[in-house]
Amino acid sequence: MLKYKSLRAPLEHLKATDEQVAQQIDKLMEQNLRVLNVTDRPTQLDDEVVIDFKGFCGGEPFDGGAAEKYPLTLGSGAFIPGFEEQLVGKNIGDHVDVKVTFPESYPAAALAGREATFRCVIHEIHVKTRYESNDDFAREVGGFDSFAELESAVRAASENPARSIGVDNDYGSLAAGRYGNVILADKELNIKAVIQKGNRIV
After folding, report:
1. What is the dihedral of CA 47, 48, 54, 55, to 10 degrees?
2. Rounded Cα distance, 139 and 18, in Å
3. Are the CB atoms for 201 and 194 separated by under 8 Å?
4. Are 114 and 103 within 8 A, CB to CB?
5. Cα angle for residues 144, 146, 150 (degrees, 5° grid)
6. Which residues contact 54 (CB under 8 A, 6 or more apart)?
7. Residue-wise burial string across 75-106, b where 16 or more C-beta atoms lie within 10 A, e elsewhere
8. Angle between helices 147-158 and 18-31 (to 10 degrees)
9. pLDDT digits (tens, 9 = 90+) for 147-160
């Protein structure tokens, strides 16, 4: 059995504050925006549209220039300059010919500097909004029954894991009578040893 009594690595039992829990939930909300369907207005900048498109140069289709049910956020700059702006002010079901010129620096040399037309069809319009701090957010994003359950889970994940699941009498710190489960790593985080219940297994 590996002797580890000389090791000194006190483990503080952290208690997450209400502010820290709220900050973590706020991050979750920023990362998981609610997507709502829009049916009562034309497209606007920052909307996500679902489109079919097919590109033509000189009247001929070109490789990589077509897709179906493609999600595109208008104003994101994901497509070549001038493309997304021409889809603003359109409605679901509209057929739109988007006319653009590929930049001279475009990676595909055969398309660089050439004019092109993309025949587009708009299938859906979505808007992304922030959830409120309520049960809907907990259910739809976290799979919890209530917002209170989500808060409890975030609090537990922010505190010492051994304490949060009620086994801190046996685990969670290096002390006599506790199970010594330790991973030793160097400054580059290369694992040098793994100790499980006081026995070195790596």
Report:
1. 60
2. 21
3. yes
4. no
5. 60
6. 61, 65, 66, 118, 119
7. eeeebbeebbebbeebebeeebebebebeeee
8. 110
9. 998 888 887 776 66
Tokens of 33: 């925006």
Reported pTM? 0.62
Residues 6+ apart with CB under 8 A from 174: 4, 7, 8, 9, 10, 11, 180, 182
What residue type is assigned to position 25 of the chain? I
* Cα R_g (the chain), whole angstroms: 27
State the Cα torsion 43-45-49-53 to the nearest 10°.
100
pLDDT per residue as tens digits for the range 69-117: 999 999 999 999 999 999 999 999 999 999 999 999 999 999 999 999 9
